[in-house]
Write a structure and sequence with these properties.
Elements (H helix, E strand, L loop, with lengths): L8 E3 L10 E9 L9 E2 L5 E11 L2 E15 L6 E15 L8 E2 L4 E3 L1 H11 L35 H11 L7 H10 L1
Parallel strand pairs: 6-7
Antiparallel strand pairs: 1-8, 2-4, 3-5, 4-5, 5-6
Helix pairs in contact: 2-3
The chain binds zinc ion.
Zinc ion binds next to loops.
Length: 188
Amino acid sequence: MATKHSPLNLNVRDLINRPGEMREEQFTVDVAEQMGEGLVAVRSGAALDVDARLESVHEGILVTTEVDAVAEGECGRCLIDIALPVEVEFQELFGYHSGEAIEYEVQDDHVDLESLIRDAVVLALPFQPVCRPDCPGLDPETGLRLADHPELVTPEHSDPRWAALTGFQASEDSGPDAESGADQQRER
Ligand SMILES: [Zn+2]
């Protein structure tokens, strides 16, 4: 829970009831409580780079926030440790008075970004993170990471994505990668 002392609870006293005034704040905070429960998460202690634009408007304070962080965890296919950059951006109006369209309120001259940032970051985390888009995963028999042991990749259990990569590598010298490009598109 955020308190008045949370670094993500920003003082906007200087902007209240001064429509047209604007201020930007850039700061880095340590994540207090892990964000995300999946294979990758922004762990407690990780740095959160926050860039917030605070604008005074008639109804309240309009906050535009950009957050950068790094999520850590493991690849969903081959289980090695990975770190993924996470970037989120959102805009929210903190009203002076709650109303139908106003979900957040200016409280004690502060706008609390904590839950907004947490929700946005958690939503941005991939459900199936991979160390690289074409990660071939693990060999079902040996449990070895196929990316490290391409000799274990046989047609029987090769992932189609891996097959595409092998083809690409084989034809690397011969020029255009039209084939690999088509495969990437199909994956989307
Ligand atoms: Zn992987």
